Amino acid sequence: MPSDQGVSYSGQAGARLSGMDSERDGRTSARRTERLSVILDALASTGTVHVGDLAERFGVSQATLRRDLALLEEQHLLTRTHGGALAQDVAYELPVRYRDGQNREAKRRIAQVAVSRIPTGPYAVGLSGGTTTSEVAKSLADRADLTVVTNALNIAMDLTLRPKVRVIVTGGTARSQTYELVGPWAEHTLAGINIGTAIVGVDGISAGAGLTTHDEIEARTNAAMLDKAQRVIVVADGSKIGRVMLAHIAPITAVHEVVTDSTADEAEVEAIRQAGVRVSVV
Q: What is the pTM for the complete model shown?
């Protein structure tokens, strides 16, 4: 029987095999990102995780989970122990690269509704950083005559590849957790720009506390974007509704519409509506 060793593939068959390998690699990467996100969420809520519990939860080997924990330890996001890991004894904010896989389908639907609010023709849209605003950017990518003003490096990079969209990027200091440019330079850029609609992501939104986030410098930069917008739309999955974080961005009265999903707390949604804000639930 001929051996398969040394066999090479070419033409359409080779392309199909290469595509299948890429697809498998993509699925593997997505599953790992989802695992890392869940691990960090668990650490944020309980302070500790155990390899055996995680392996059973994800249906993977303990060796795979130990590699996951080693990767997160290299990034100073946890401290490994003999049987698992402990949360780092520092202020906790899940980096955007690990938040990207959370509630992805809901974020896509939220983004589609937000984009439907943007009028046709020449128009300026402001986009803050975040996983849901990144979905908004993807939905805006094929719009003609659109100018996008953003302080998010990942959004700017993605949209720069789209020739139909004009991209304006603020200056500022980069935050590794959110890929956002923040601080006085970013605020100075925003002060000279007029925005039709600002679509912003937040870490928390409530009728009483308004819009909030983890970082006070980021909050000031986001507030500067809101101040230059004629209309403000907050895109937030249900986990953000009712949450109150450290840094205040703006009162709820600064918002014209909130787009969220059906997992949002109904009482909080109603309280936001009673404050005079339109709430769309997907």
A: 0.71
